[in-house]
């Protein structure tokens, strides 16, 4: 059981189990009157030094740091190839100076209000699978 120091009316969580940071609530944690139990979530971090990468099922829920100095293409595969559940989230960060481009596999739609290229070094982008072969892309992006 977590110890929570929080202002439940304003939604501010000061600490969870004595640690500061972001608290992630999952459906099982939510009671009728707010949080009844909070479990800490640790996001796995993956380093990718290559200039080409295709997401794997093991990337589900991962924060991927791309470190190459050259341009990088990260392909989001079709559901027939890698069947990510709807609701899957993958986050990306351009750590090196090589710009990261998200590339949809054949039949995949990437929904974004801007573009599919990271805006600069240290830009962070998130992909959320919202339907079969459909992902919503947000964050530090340019055309």
What's the SSE blueprint?
Layout: E1 4-7, E2 12-16, E3 30-31, E4 34-35, E5 45-48, E6 52-54, E7 63-66, E8 72-76, E9 89-94, E10 100-104, E11 109-111, E12 117-118, E13 124-131, E14 134-139, E15 141-142
Parallel strand pairs: 5-7, 6-8, 7-9, 8-10, 11-14
Antiparallel strand pairs: 1-2, 3-4, 9-13, 12-15, 13-14
Q: How helical, in percent, are the residues? A: under 10%
Count of distinct structural domains: 2
Rg over CA atoms, rounded to whole Å, is: 17 Å
Oligomer: single chain
Query: Could you give the order of strands across the largest sheet?
Result: 5-7-9-13-14-11
Mean pLDDT: 82
Number of helices: 0
Could you state the order of secondary-structure elements as H and E? EEEEEEEEEEEEEEE
CATH architecture of the largest domain: Sandwich
CATH domain class name of the largest domain: Mainly Beta
Indicate the low-confidence ranges by residue numbers: 1-16, 25-38
Shape: globular
Class inferred from helices and paired strands:
mainly beta
Quantity of strands, as a count: 15
Distance between the termini: 45 Å
Q: Strand count, sense and closure of the main sheet?
A: 6 strands, mixed
CATH topology descriptor of the largest domain:
Jelly Rolls
């Amino acid at each position: 059981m977590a110890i929570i120091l929080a202002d439940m009316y304003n939604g501010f969580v000061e600490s969870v189990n004595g640690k500061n940071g972001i608290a992630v609530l999952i459906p099982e944690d939510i009671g009728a009157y707010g949080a009844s139990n909070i479990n800490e979530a640790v996001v796995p971090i993956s380093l990718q030094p290559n200039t080409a990468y295709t997401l794997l099922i093991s990337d589900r829920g991962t924060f991927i740091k791309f470190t190459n100095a050259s341009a990088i293409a990260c392909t989001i595969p079709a559901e027939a190839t890698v069947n990510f559940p709807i609701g899957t989230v993958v986050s990306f960060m351009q750590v090196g100076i090589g710009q990261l481009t998200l590339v949809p596999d054949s039949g995949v739609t990437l929904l974004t209000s801007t573009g599919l290229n990271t805006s600069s070094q240290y830009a962070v982008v998130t992909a959320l699978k919202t339907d079969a072969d459909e992902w919503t892309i947000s964050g530090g992006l340019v055309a």
